[in-house]
Amino acid sequence: MNEALDAIRLTVVLATATTVVLLLLATPLAWWLSQTASRWRAPISALVTLPLVLPPSVLGFYLLVAMGPQGPLGQLTQALGWGVLSFTFTGLLIGSVIFSLPFAVQPLQHAFESMGTRPMEAAYTLRASPLDAFFSVALPLARPGLITAAILSFSHTVGEFGVVLMIGGNIPGKTRVVSTQIYGHVEAMEYAQAHWLAGGMLAFSFAVLLALSLMRKRSVRVMP
C-alpha cells in the first residue's frame, strides 16, 4: 500500500511540475509560431510536434543517452557538479516536458491564431507596448487554449510509460510512478494490486479531467 501511495504521490508531483514548466515554455513558443513568418517556423514546428509520432521508447533512449555519463547533457551536468540526470526525478521532469511539449504548444498556438490580428492592432493604436498588449490582450483571449494545454499536459504526463521507464527506470520512492508500478505488478502477476492501482488512477484521472473541463467551460462562458 505504501509503495502504491508513493507512486501516486510522485505521479501527481511530476505531472504538476511538468504542466507548470510546459506552460512557461510553451506560451512564448506558441506565440512566436503563431505570429512569425520566419523560415525557421516550419522546422521548429516539426521539431515540437515530433513526440507525437516518435515512439516513446525511441525518444526515451536518446534522452537516456544524452543524460548519461558520455552524453552532452550528462557531461555538462557532471562538470557543474550535479552528476548525471538519468534515473533521477529531474531527468524524469526533463523527459516529461519534452514528451508532452506538443500537447501544450498546439492548443496555445491555435488559440493565438484564432484571435486574429484586430485585438493586437487595437492595443497598438492605444500605444500599448508589444509586451503589454500580449499580457493584457492576447493572453486573456487565449485563456481557453491555456486551460486546454494544462489539461492535456497533466493527463498526458500521468499516462506516460515508455519515456519514464527508459529514463527513470523503476526505483521505489524516486522514479517509480503509477504506470511503472502497474507494470511491476503485472510482471509479478499481482493482478489484484494492479487492478486496484489502475482503477484508482482511472477514477483520479477522470476526476481531474472533469474538474479541468468544467473550469474551461466556465472560463469560456465568462469571456467577453
For this entry, give a set of tags.
MetI-like fold, mainly alpha, single chain, 224 residues
Describe this structure as you would to a colleague.
- By secondary structure, the protein is an all-alpha fold.
- It has one domain: MetI-like fold (Orthogonal Bundle), CATH 1.10.3720.10.
- It is 79% helix and 0% strand.
- It has helices at 2-35, 41-53, 56-67, 72-79, 89-114, 118-125, 130-141, 143-158, 162-168, 178-187, 191-222.
- Helix 3 (56-67) packs parallel to helix 9.
- It starts with a helix and ends with a helix.
- The model has no long low-confidence stretch (mean pLDDT 87).
Main sheet record: none
Give the CATH H-level superfamily.
MetI-like
Task: Classify the helix fraction into a percent range.
Answer: over 70%
Please name the CATH architecture: Orthogonal Bundle
Structural domain tally: 1
The oligomeric state of the chains shown is single chain
Global morphology? globular
Task: Please provide the count of β strands.
Answer: 0
Number of helices: 11
What is the N-to-C order of secondary-structure elements (H for helix, E for strand)?
HHHHHHHHHHH
Mean pLDDT value: 87
